[in-house]
């Protein structure tokens, strides 16, 4: 069975702090895809990144960076110099051939 | 380019009633998937449609059903509503197959918030 665990239910930081959101997954498949989505208060999920299981290269996009480590089954997400607009619920998700699972989400609050 | 549109945004029903939710995907997208989001269970996959055919189905009872029309618009129906069906129902579309197993980006709507009294 596959599973996504986001152990951090809520995180609160002050603007300009760096913050890392953890994601640990379980799967027996060798081919799978990992995602991060952002859900602002309006409700829609906004796609942030997709990574396949064969690509462990870390990625940086502006203030966002992702660290994929198959050895620890983790796909962590770091926001550098956080801003108030980063406040949202962030979901990690795992997709394989016939199933897609989301983590429980981490609510990030960035205070001014 | 218009995003994924879901209607209605909010609705209130009573137990035993049925409800139909609508989703209009992004123009050109042929795949639509539905998710249920609740505080207790989080985001759960309901089903996925591609070219009017249900391609995948999550672990939900038969009271939950859906369909897709030739213009890719999709509806989902929940019959004999229960209190536990209160949730945010999210629709997502993608150009190729959406939902489980797909590698493409999913574009989500803002959801339909259903309250069952």
Descriptive overview:
The complex is a heterodimer of chains A (112) and B (117). Chain A is 0% helix and 55% strand. In chain A, the strands form three sheets. In chain A, strands 2, 5, 6, 10, 11 and 12 form a six-stranded mixed beta sheet that branches. A four-stranded antiparallel beta sheet of chain A has the order 3-9-8-7, with no helix packed on it. Chain A is mainly beta and 112 residues long. Chain B is mostly beta strands and 117 residues long. Chain B is built from no helices and eleven strands. In chain B, strands 2, 4, 5, 6, 9, 10 and 11 form a seven-stranded mixed beta sheet that branches. In chain B, a hairpin with a 3-residue loop joins strand 4 (31-38) and strand 5. Chain B is globular. Chain A binds chain B through residues 33, 37, 42-47, 50, 52, 91, 93, 95-105, and chain B through 3-4, 35, 42-45, 56, 88, 90, 92, 99-103, 105-111, 113.
What integer value in Å does the Rg of chain B equal?
13 Å
Percent of residues in helices of chain A comes to under 10%
H/E element sequence of chain A: EEEEEEEEEEEE
Unreliable segments of chain A (pLDDT under 50, ≥5 consecutive)?
none
Q: What topology does this entry show?
A:
The complex is a heterodimer of chains A (112) and B (117).
Chain A: E1 3-5, E2 10-14, E3 19-21, E4 24-26, E5 33-39, E6 46-52, E7 59-61, E8 64-69, E9 74-79, E10 88-96, E11 99-102, E12 106-111
Parallel strand pairs in A: 2-12
Antiparallel strand pairs in A: 1-4, 3-9, 5-6, 5-10, 7-8, 8-9, 10-11, 10-12
Chain B: E1 5-7, E2 10-13, E3 19-24, E4 31-38, E5 42-50, E6 53-57, E7 64-68, E8 74-78, E9 87-94, E10 107-108, E11 112-116
Parallel strand pairs in B: 2-11
Antiparallel strand pairs in B: 1-3, 3-8, 4-5, 4-9, 5-6, 7-8, 9-10, 9-11
């Amino acid at each position: 069975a596959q599973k996504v665990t986001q152990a951090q239910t809520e995180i609160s930081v002050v603007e300009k702090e760096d913050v890392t959101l953890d994601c640990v997954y379980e799967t027996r498949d060798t081919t799978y895809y990992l995602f991060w989505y952002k859900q602002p208060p309006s409700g829609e999920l906004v796609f942030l990144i997709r990574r396949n299981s064969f690509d462990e290269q870390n990625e940086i996009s502006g203030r966002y960076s992702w660290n994929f480590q198959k050895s620890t089954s983790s796909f962590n997400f770091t926001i550098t110099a956080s801003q108030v607009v980063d406040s949202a619920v962030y979901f990690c998700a795992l997709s394989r051939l016939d199933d897609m699972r989301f983590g429980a989400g981490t609510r990030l609050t960035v205070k001014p | 380019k218009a995003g994924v549109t879901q209607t209605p945004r909010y609705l209130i029903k009573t137990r035993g009633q049925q409800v139909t939710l609508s989703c209009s995907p992004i123009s050109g997208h042929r795949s639509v998937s539905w998710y249920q989001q609740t505080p207790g269970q989080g985001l759960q996959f309901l089903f996925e449609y591609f070219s009017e055919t249900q391609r995948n189905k999550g672990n939900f009872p038969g009271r939950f059903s859906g369909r897709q029309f030739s213009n890719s618009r999709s509806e989902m129906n929940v019959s004999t509503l229960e209190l536990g069906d209160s949730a945010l129902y999210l629709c997502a579309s993608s150009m190729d197959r959406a939902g489980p197993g797909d590698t493409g980006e999913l574009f989500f709507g803002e959801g339909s918030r259903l309250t069952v009294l």
